[in-house]
Specification:
heterodimer, A: mainly alpha, 0% strand, B: mainly alpha, 7 helices
Chain lengths: 317, 221
């Protein structure tokens, strides 16, 4: 009984690591189609990673231990986050270690390390990117926490797996606060993963880049790990969204067979395909905001999440 | 019983949508966008009035729903659109004072409105009594929008949105106002928009812009 849940935990983590670049590739493909370009192949991110792993590392002479350790820390935190988030099954041995608030802390740890590493070399671009990243981060984090609080109040628990279980136990009632929370979550997802209203993942334009500015000094296997970690981050965020708002198909506590695991994998794939297409669509529709408008955007997300809480508390659903 | 519960649920969602649109209006910069949002507010109001009529089994509510549809979804946005086109102001964007601060003030207003509505909600018997707080919040938010705006057209849109809030409040507290009053209010709105439309042209002729700051100074300098 115990071993089987560990096996499933293992399957979930391996699957997350394996298909995260695929998800990024799918989004890039959708974006290319929407912009009337011929799309890069779906497996392009994997080729990128392979190419980078075979290259030799070029390190700045004044790079410290921190700079070299950060890619591994990033990758490690993202894998741990993938282990906590119930993307396939809710009976996760590791999930008991940390609840959703600790999960937000995990993301914050990754952010702090990346920003410090970007400042480590001392180039102006790295410092600029790090500062901007911290600005976005400190505004996005409360909004994300508020979204999570929405769900906590609704289901009376702070751990994601029991939220999913609670959702199953509840009826299918449309709660207005869920709509507010979902919109706020989508906004935070775009901001946190360096997608278009805040940052454009596909440019290296000097004055607008945030995430790319921090990676400028990385090369070869370090760069590969950081890139892999950021696609894992996007995957993780999507899975948090699925767990909070559309937890259909996830194998809950009651069902243990291999059959339910298969259903969960198929459901996850389906949701990822749809989410990727929607993400690319929204990204193609919207224009990148000026960096000074970013606080406005994130204040809006925070406000929506708080409104969701208020509506829930005071409307008395 | 089950149907009534579902209707009450959907009404709450619609009311939440109205609140959302109010906030979007508060942050909206372009005049055209505000008019579209106003029309959507009308659509939500129409649907929720129809649902209240269905849920409470009141025939006359359908009439006021139809009035909402004709006036607030079709006629007024159309008139406003034409006005704005004639004024050439559809892509006008205005400098807003610090959107995050406005949003926070809006949030406080929502809390205040919910607190205000609590005692009334507890004694009302309508199926929509929970949305009264949202209705009051919509009124206050539209008021805030009128205060923060400088352009004449956007202030009028704020005024119209306030009326939407009043309508929602009347529906949620007492299943709407008597028909005569409703017709009176509708006529008022229509005539009001007409007269204000004439004002727009006059203001523009006098000051070469629709900015209301010019009206604040008493003397010409």
């Amino acid at each position: 009984m115990r071993t089987i849940s560990f096996v499933r935990q293992f399957v979930e983590v391996i699957l997350a690591i394996a298909i995260a670049p695929l998800f990024t590739g799918w989004i890039a493909q959708c974006r290319a189609w929407l912009q009337n370009r011929s799309a890069p192949p779906l497996l392009q991110p994997y080729r990128m990673l392979r190419k980078l792993f075979f290259k030799d590392v070029a390190l700045a002479t004044n790079a410290s231990m921190l700079f070299r350790a950060t890619p591994y820390v990033l990758f490690g935190t993202m894998v741990l986050a993938a282990a906590i988030i119930p993307s396939l099954v809710t009976d996760l041995p590791l999930a008991r270690v940390a609840d959703a608030i600790a999960l937000v802390g995990l993301f914050a740890t990754a952010r702090v390390f990346l920003s410090l590493a970007a400042m480590d070399i001392g180039t102006s671009f790295g410092t600029m990117g790090a500062r901007r990243e911290m600005m976005i981060g400190f505004l996005a984090e409360p909004a994300l926490l508020m979204v999570l609080f929405n769900a906590f109040i609704l289901f009376g628990s702070t751990s994601l797996p029991s939220l999913v279980d609670g959702y199953r136990a509840h009826r299918t009632v449309i709660d207005p606060s869920v709509i507010f929370a979902a919109i706020a979550f989508a906004m935070v997802l775009f901001a946190e993963n360096g997608r278009i209203p805040i940052d454009n993942p596909s440019t290296h334009l000097e004055l607008t880049m945030i995430h790319e500015a921090m990676l400028l000094e990385y090369s070869a296997r370090h760069l590969a790990l950081v890139e892999w970690a950021s696609s894992l981050k996007l995957f993780n965020y999507s899975c948090i969204g699925f767990a909070l708002f559309v937890p259909w198909g996830i194998a809950t506590n009651g069902r243990n067979g291999a059959w339910s695991l298969l259903i969960a994998i198929v459901a996850l794939m389906g949701k990822l395909v749809i989410a990727g297409a929607v993400l690319a669509f929204v990204e193609s529709l919207s224009a990148k905001l000026r960096i000074f408008r970013a606080p406005e955007y994130l204040a809006m997300a925070f406000l929506l999440a708080v409104l969701g809480l208020l509506v829930h508390l005071l409307l008395g659903v | 019983m089950h149907v009534t519960e579902l209707v009450a649920q959907i009404l709450k969602v619609l009311a939440a949508g109205l609140l959302l649109i109010s906030f979007a209006m508060l942050a909206g910069r372009r005049t055209q966008q505000l008019i579209t949002l106003y029309a959507w507010q009308g659509v939500l109001l129409f649907v929720s009035t129809c649902l209240v009529a269905y849920g409470a089994g009141l025939r006359e509510m359908y009439y006021s729903a139809a009035l909402t549809l004709i006036l607030k979804v079709i006629a007024l946005p159309w008139i406003l659109n034409r006005l704005v086109h004639r004024l050439g102001a559809q892509w006008d964007s205005e400098q807003l004072v610090n959107v995050p601060t406005t949003m926070l003030v809006g949030l406080l207003l929502v809390i205040f409105a919910f607190g205000l509505a609590q005692p009334i909600t507890s004694i009302a018997t309508t199926i929509t009594r929970h949305t009264l707080g949202i209705a009051l919040a919509v009124i206050l938010l539209s008021f805030l929008m009128m205060i923060t705006r400088r352009k004449a057209v956007t202030q009028v849109i704020g005024f119209l949105a306030m009326e939407n809030g009043l309508f929602l409040a009347a529906t949620s507290a007492t299943y709407g106002m008597p028909m005569v009053i409703e017709f009176g209010v509708a006529l008022d709105l229509l005539v009001g928009v007409f007269i204000l439309g004439i004002f727009f042209f006059q203001i523009r002729e006098q000051f070469d812009s629709l900015d209301l700051r010019h009206l604040e100074s008493l003397k010409e300098d």
